[in-house]
Amino acid sequence: MATARPLTKRPPTHRSASKSTPKTPRSTRSVSVQCPLSAPKVPLPAGQPREWYETHNRQLKAMRLAIALLDSGVYTPARATDQRISGTAARIGVRPPSRATCRLVRSFLPTLGACAR
């Protein structure tokens, strides 16, 4: 019968001194952070028709705007006017949306009946 090993921390490993990599203090390293909750960017599949790429990018933009609207307290499609969606786009640094994108944003927002349970 095998015995379980106790859960202990590994001892710290030390790099050999023979490597000649310059070390920079943590405080001077530059870190590029665009969005704290952004997913890693993956290239889109090749070979799709142009309309597919346009629709896909429109859906991504509409989802970003819908999330920003929900974060700002707009929970119903009736309160998400084109002006409010455009203002939200300017606030989060996205190009102004088209009317089609605004309609798509409103379709992503929950209706009042779905929230009242």
Summarize the structure.
The chain is built from 4 helices and no strands. The chain has 117 residues and is an all-alpha fold.
Strand content range: under 5%
**Low-pLDDT windows of residues:** 27-35
| Radius of gyration, whole Å | 24 Å
* Helix proportion range: 40-55%
Determine the number of helices (DSSP H or I, runs of at least 4 residues): 4
Outline the fold blueprint:
Layout: H1 50-71, H2 82-92, H3 99-108, H4 112-115
Helix pairs in contact: 1-2, 1-3
Can you tell me about this structure?
With 117 residues, the chain is mainly α. It has a domain at 46-111. It is 40% helix and 0% strand. The protein is built from four helices and no strands. The protein has helices at 50-71, 82-92, 99-108, 112-115. Helix 1 (50-71) crosses helix 3 (99-108).
List keywords for this structure.
globular; mainly alpha
